[in-house]
# Entry
Amino acid sequence: MISLWEQLVKASANFTGFPCPQNFDMYEINLDLTAYRLIAGVDEAGRGPLVGAVVAAAVILDPSRPIQGLRDSKKLSEKRREQLFQEITSQSLSWAIASASPAEIDQLNILQASLLAMKRAVEALGVQPEIALVDGNQRPRLSCRVEAIVKGDSKVAAISAASILAKVERDRQMYALHETYPLYGFDQHKGYPTAAHLALLHQHGPCPEHRRSFAPVKLALGQVTPF
# Structure
């Protein structure tokens, strides 16, 4: 009987998102994962913006149902991310999305809030992983083994999948926030500190979803009366 790991390698023959033909580039990430059957990829979106939650996702891919085109979400068009979002959520063994609020970001700092969102995403999985591979160089505290992989969203398919889910959900939240606060153009810059966003922030003051601990928001609070 073919093992799950052998299925993973076989399914990866059609994987086109990375130069390496396998879901895991063993040499680049320097990990032996052959002992693990349930491997979760974890990533976040929204650390840099001045407004809204930081969103994290966790994904356990199904090696018998490979998804072609997975790669770092930042390198994909919005349309392609939406397409892959549907494939990932329908074809994965398990997936979950979680977040940490602006208030939690202000209380904990953005790094700790990001790790909290990641922890929540992994804990929300319907199938608990044996190991979690996290994008970046920081590891959330989980009940399973955790490995941090720098630029993991470009090296590990499951992390790429998680980055896509997190990015799509975060963008959807920004579109919804734009409906509530149309003065700021959240549908255009997604909350990042662009020149247009900074100008509108100083013109109108922060909205309730702006992160009070971020320097540009602090500055705006000192210049104008907030909502």
